[in-house]
Amino acid sequence: MHAYRSHTCAALTAANVGETVRLSGWVHRVRDHGGVLFIDLRDHFGVTQVLCDGDSAAFAELEKVRSEWCIRIDGTVKARDADLVNPKLPTGEIEVYVRELEVLGAADELPLMVFGDQEYPEETRLRYRYLDLRREAMQQNMTLRSDVVASMRRRMWDQGFREYQTPIITASSPEGARDFLVPSRLHPGKFYALPQAPQQFKQLIMVSGFDKYFQIAPCFRDEDPRADRSPTDFYQLDLEMSFVEQQDVFDTIQPVLAGVFEEFGGGRKVDQDWPQISYKDAALWYGSDKPDLRNPIKMQVVSDHFRGSGFAIFAKLLEQEGTEIRAIPAPTGGSRKFCDRMNAFAQKEGLPGMGYIFWRDQGEGMEAAGPLAKNIGAERTEAIRQQLGLGIGDAAFFLGGKPKAFEKVAGKARDVIGEELGLTEKDRFAFAWIVDFPIYEQDEETGAIDFEHNPFSMPQGGIEALNGNPLDVRGYQYDLACNGYELVSGAIRNHKPEIMLKAFELAGYGADEVKSRFGALFNAFHYGAPPHGGCAAGIDRIVMLLADEANIREVMMFPMNQRAEDLMMDAPSDPSSDQLMELGLRIIPQD
């Protein structure tokens, strides 16, 4: 017999009754029934109930074991009495009578319990992550993650892609986040960087003639943490293709992701029609470039109904350049109580409030109610209702100003309205491509032009587009949104050196700086670079959605905490004096 087990703790059934078996695992739960000990023995695969009484030579030793001790038992498989069968367990028809026991690893008093559904502070969970990972939900999440990655790989190979690895130590590159720098021992005073993404390398792979590339790639960014973003590192399905247009990339990645969500979505509906929405329209309709399309609400511009109206706040606001009024329809939200609640929500978000109108049945017809309706009059109110397609029992909320100042709050309000009114469809994955991203943005204080998104995107219209107003330039750049999260980001790349120089020049980068910072890419484009494009899908967020988790740390094996600390490994840590000396570094104390 094997030294540790003849079966896993999920393998035994009624067909094994009478057999002598060997199991190894962790003591999940101990129950003492007055001279008879019952233990749920757990391994990665499942749970088997084992028992022992005073007639067994192992009884005295088994009495000593406690939760999470790692043990090996030898015993005989017995059938449970019919009224004791547990249909919830694959092993629920049997139990194992213990005849021999070996303690493989005793456990001290536990800082957190593995058995049960107790909640523990995140600090405790991360400090003792190896215990936290033993819990059933975490075992399922990590297994799901592994299976998702394996499925992605198979699907990419099936489409003719090969996986190639790119460097982990490279040069610093401005890609929208802070780099993690790595000091060089052999070149004192110089630093490598951990790659924010394999962006330049995968483009160079295309220039090298490999046509199709993919990689399950680690990426490193020194970012502020969020619930859906790691502050240090993450993994993505990274891909690139030569001789493609934007639609070719969409047609490649859609069956991969749709297949993964169908395979692991637990029966939830997976939309097959993925609309393409311009960045401008996404901001207008949803207040976000990662809209949740399970929510049917679309915001609309209603400025004309308030110009010169009796509602002075909006009327005067519209006299300023670049301002507008937007409405958020709220079907079935037509009660003063709900409207007041949403007004309070806006105030919590830092706004003075949200104007509203709601329509109710007065017996002889419909009546528009609320302060706005009284101020702008029946004719304007009716025009708003007709434009929004609303009726009795419905409401609309209004926000005004410069769109960038209120779009984010409007998007949040849309989400809250959809949730509270039950309009957002659950058990569904709704996808949308967001396209036509602006390449540049302008700093409101300094007026300086900089890249708003990926600097390596091909501008729509080529170099001619760069001769006009930079803020009007759109790129062949795209994101894929699902249920309010950005899952994919990509672009058709700028592969012509003259366009690359011009694009960076508009953002304040001189030719010498471009050649210095992106020398390999710039030089490669002089030697027959093919048109190419691709994208990257965030594996952590995909698994988070599939696992129905709200926090990305629930689907990462060993995540950092909110302050980018590894509590288990005590990182970041202080370097020794010898290490600093060897690297030619000195720590300057912060005041």
Most strands sheet: 8 strands, mixed
The count of helical stretches stands at 17
Bulk shape: globular
Helix content: 25-40%
- Residue ranges: pLDDT <50 for 5 or more in a row? none
- Binned strand content: 15-25%
Radius of gyration: 30 Å
Distance between the termini: 65 Å
Structural class: alpha+beta
As an assembly, this protein is single chain
Across the major sheet, the strand order is 6-9-10-24-23-22-19-12
Using DSSP, what is the number of strands? 24
Mean pLDDT: 94
Features:
591 residues, globular, alpha+beta, single chain, 8-stranded mixed sheet
Sequence-ordered SSE layout with sheet pairings:
Elements: E1 20-32, E2 36-42, E3 47-53, H1 59-62, E4 70-79, E5 94-105, H2 122-127, H3 129-132, H4 136-158, E6 162-163, E7 180-183, E8 191-194, H5 199-207, E9 212-220, E10 233-242, H6 246-264, E11 269-270, E12 276-278, H7 279-286, E13 300-301, H8 312-317, E14 324-330, H9 336-348, E15 355-361, E16 366-369, H10 371-388, E17 395-401, H11 403-420, E18 428-429, E19 431-435, E20 440-442, E21 449-451, H12 462-465, E22 477-482, E23 485-492, H13 497-506, H14 511-517, H15 519-524, E24 532-538, H16 539-546, H17 577-583
Helix pairs in contact: 4-6, 4-16
